[in-house]
Automatic annotation (TrEMBL):
Source species of the chain: Natranaerobius trueperi
Designated name of the protein: Electron transfer flavoprotein subunit alpha
Note accompanying the cofactor annotation: Binds 1 FAD per dimer.
Classification via InterPro entries: 4Fe4S_Fe-S-bd, 4Fe4S_Fe_S_CS, DHS-like_NAD/FAD-binding_dom, ETF_a/b_N, ETF_a/FixB, ETF_alpha_N, ETF_asu_C, ETF_asu_C_CS
The keyword Iron-sulfur appears for this protein: yes
């Protein structure tokens, strides 16, 4: 806290105060904006109110103008739109060029990106081009109204402390924020906004990468990030086959399958199922943790779930500290009993 105060005091005079507005990069897949973009717009609205400024959205894609209404509904006052067939799918070089140019022209004070694979890739490159700072993977964002500083909080030192990071001099202040961390407001479809169509010149011609094919995950259960119910398995399963039981319970109650890192590292299940600090952040209505001890790095990714049920044979397992309901017992007895009960329901 002391260091934060010193940083704030020392740097106020050097800031370029011609920068204005809180922007969100609207990431989309196949022209459909990701939920995290709406979560960030809701947050941006709050920050913009504190700073007495506007909310901007940046949408880069092909024939994507029809999404403007949604972007306005979630809080944007202005939409910066870059369109063209070359922007249909994310491309690091093209999108970096676009963001870099728009930011240099319109000078936003803050820019937020989703901490997705593409959001992380883009934000880092744009920050380097702009010679400004970037805080990756934030789990909390607040503002010091008076000094107009974005207070960007993220886990550090293996999740053992929460660090608040400031970008006192560089502008814009930039952060990536994990999906599902910010709450999405209800959309207001009556809200209008201004569309600023941006035509870019000197687009990069030689692209080092191109998309050959997009392979979708095929799974019997629903996508982890969108799931309202998640059943997760940990090392307590003892063997990879244990995930068949987890999947059976997930299917019985219409949920998705999650996992602890221990099981991912052991090669029992692919990484895209991992919940936690180095996996996904989730906030479902119901999270069932089976044979998971409750390490701080796991809890960082699921502790905001509405209801948490923990099944563990060790009554002292830390997961019980945050569980709404705890079942002390062998998961190989408890989970089949739950499946039987739900299938008869
Ligand atoms: P354990 O800690 O081994 O727990 C297994 C539990 O199963 C025990 O509590 C045991 O009592 C119980 N059990 C055993 N048999 C049974 C049974 N038959 N029935 C019921 N209960 C049973 N971890 C993550 O999960 N996600 C992350 O994103 C993540 N990121 C990390 C990042 C860093 C930088 C570091 C250092 C670590 C990270 N970890 C992460 C690892 C984390 O510290 C733990 O090692 C991991 O979460 C442990 O997984 P687990 O709970 O499955 O295994």
């Amino acid at each position: 806290v002391g260091a934060i105060e010193v940083a704030k005091k020392e740097t106020k005079a050097e800031v370029d105060d011609s920068y204005e507005g809180v922007w969100v990069y609207i990431e989309h897949v196949d022209g459909e904006p990701l939920e995290v973009s709406f979560e960030l717009l809701s947050k941006a609205k709050e920050l913009a109110k504190d700073l007495n400024t506007y909310v901007g959205g940046v949408l880069i894609g092909d024939k994507i103008k029809s999404k403007a209404n949604e972007v306005f509904a979630y809080g944007a006052d202005k939409l910066y739109l870059v369109q063209g067939s070359e922007y249909k799918n994310y491309n690091t070089k093209l999108y970096t060029h676009a963001m870099d140019n728009i930011i240099k022209t319109y000078k936003p004070e803050i820019v937020l990106f989703g901490a997705t694979n593409n959001g992380r890739d883009l934000a880092a490159r744009v920050a380097v081009r702009l010679r400004t700072g970037l805080t990756a993977d934030c789990t909390k964002i607040t503002i010091d109204k008076e000094k107009r500083l974005l207070e960007q909080t993220r886990p550090a030192f293996g999740g053992n402390i929460m660090a608040t990071i400031l970008c006192p001099i560089g502008r814009p202040q930039m952060a990536t924020v994990r999906p599902k961390v910010m709450k999405k407001d209800k959309p207001d479809y009556a809200k209008q906004g201004e569309i600023i169509e941006v035509n870019l010149e000197d687009k990069p011609q030689e692209l080092r990468t191109r998309i050959i094919d997009i392979i979708q995950h095929t799974t019997q259960t629903v996508n982890l990030e969108d799931a309202e119910i998640i059943v997760s398995g940990g090392r307590g399963l003892s063997e990879p086959e244990g995930f068949k039981l987890i999947e059976e319970l997930a299917v019985a109650i219409g949920g998705a399958v999650g996992a602890s890192r221990a099981t991912v590292d052991a090669g029992w299940i692919p990484h895209h199922h991992q919940v936690g600090q180095t996996g996904k952040t989730v906030a479902p209505k119901l999270y069932i943790a089976c044979g998971i001890s409750g390490a701080i790095q796991h809890m960082a990714g699921m502790q905001t779930s509405d209801v948490i049920i923990a099944i563990n044979k060790d009554p002292d397992a830390p997961i019980f500290d945050i569980a709404t309901y705890g079942i002390v017992g062998d998961l190989y007895e408890v989970v089949p009993a739950l499946i039987k009960e739900f299938n008869n329901y």
